[in-house]
Amino acid sequence: MIVHILPSANGFPAVSYNTNKIDRNKGELMRTANFGSLQGMQQLRPEDYRQYFKMVAATNKQVKRAQFHAVISAKGREYDKQVLTDVAEKWLAVMGYGSQPYLIIYHKDTKNNHVHLVSVRVDHHGKKISDQFEKIRAVQQLNTIMGRDIKHNAANDIASALTYQFATRAQWMMILESQGYVLRDQGGSMQVIKFGTLQGEINLKLIEEKLRHYQPDQDRKVQLKALFHKYMALYSTELMKDRSGYGSDFSVLLKEKFGIDLLFHASGDKPPYGYTVVDHAGKHVFKGGEIMPLKELLATLAISKEEDSGASSDVDFAVDSVSAEQARYYAALLKAALHNYPDLVQGLQHQGLLIYRNGESFYLYDPGAGVSIGLEDLLDESDCLLVAENFSQSQEISEELYRQQHHFRGMELASDIDDEAIHGRNRRRKKKARTNSR
Fold it and tell me: Cα Rg for the chain, rounded, in angstroms?
């Protein structure tokens, strides 16, 4: 089980986002609490909850972004909606939100059972709920509730890392770094840090001893090269950059299905100059060039772009005729994606939507409904400019979200927090925009 705290926001857009899920039979309201007289009313509207949150937030004008929005997710179907709801209530209490008005909504339209928690960062006395070290505390408190011993897990991960075959100390460090640890050289030992706290240390002599006995596994190299060739024909190797590094559809597939991490090395904003293969399944670390030169790995990029721009694309950029009600619906989803997530790309993924650019125009595309709508028909000028700015920048996912999604061994959220329609992923053979495919 894993927890993410999403960025604060104005106006409590998370209420509409989650109630829309309920209206579309993709979510279920599990629990409401501390809404005062509203608790006794029947058939409450989203606006009722939103106005109550705003009323509480108004008692402290200094808090400009008063929405509290978090997600607690299980891996697959490991925990059902009731267990997740009970855990969410306990977690809200220890995070300081037990007496706050809150909603807990179960989402049932992804491969990972999860609940959304919506509350307000100002209490009934006008005092701001503490957000000091909030993300670290969030994980620590969830671990406590779930009975996890982080130091014990770290000791196991360190011991496991020493069973790998690696050619350099840097390669050994990558084994743990790929699992979300930060390593710090302290003379004769290496400190292993997670959640901002020292979790363990290892004597560097143990690493040097492993290096003296290193033997590359030639058979495994052959297996990995064959694996690369097979899946490069199906998944794009085009690299996308976020704050924590580079990745692609292909690298995500290798990690999720085969336990193989591709770690790309770059200097500043320059393209990667190399990569490392951390083979958790085979317990081996290779220089990427030992398996496949980076130039060859990325050689399909031009093909991918050519196909994406071909006349046979399934995306029709012509503006579809939609009703006023449909336009309001898509406008609400797009605004939530734009203002209620760490970045626009992640918001679109969670809404199951895509944005395409054709010439100087931008279009919202719903793969499920096959609908394309010009953004100028959905957003005002300032929001259209904000979309254009986001579109032109590198895709950025907050470091905390990326670490938890991609590096937390044994308690992954896999690749989505919520309802991911994988942004920009195209199967070459079918040339269709992919929907959820975890």
Answer: 23
Residue 108: band (very low, low, confident or very high) from pLDDT cuts 50, 70, 90: confident
Whether 350 has a pLDDT exceeding 60, the answer reads yes
Say yes or no: 357 and 302 in one domain: no
Best-predicted range by mean pLDDT among 103-107, 148-152, 251-255, 338-342? 103-107
Write out the residue range of the structural domain in which residue 233 sits: 218-307
pTM: predicted TM-score of the whole model, two decimal places = 0.46
Give the confidence band of 415 by pLDDT, cuts at 50, 70, 90.
Answer: very low
Residues ≥6 apart with Cβ < 8 Å to 246? 239, 240, 264, 266, 272
Q: Are residues 359 and 256 in the same domain?
A: no
> Is there a contact between 115 and 104 (Cβ–Cβ < 8 Å)?
yes
At 384, give phi and psi (nearest 5°). -65, -40
Q: Are residues 111 and 169 in the same domain?
A: no
Which residue, of 212, 237, 252, is where some domain finishes?
212
**What is the distance between the alpha carbons of residues 368 and 327, in angstroms, rounded to a whole number?**
16
Alpha helices in 162-267 (DSSP H): 169-177, 204-212, 218-232, 249-258
Residue carrying structure tokens 């240390």: 201
Domain end, chosen from 193, 212, 231, is at 212
- Identify the CA nearest to 348 among candidates 423, 401, 402, 398: 423
Nearest Cα residue to 52 out of 106, 100, 1, 95: 100
Q: What share of the chain is helix, strand, coil (3-state, %, to 5)?
A: 40, 20, 40
166-214 pLDDT, tens per residue?
999 999 999 988 888 889 888 889 899 876 778 888 999 999 999 988 8
Ramachandran angles phi, psi of 409, nearest 5°: -70, 130
The count of structural domains within the chain is 4
What is the rounded CA–CA span in Å between residue 376 and residue 245?
Answer: 33
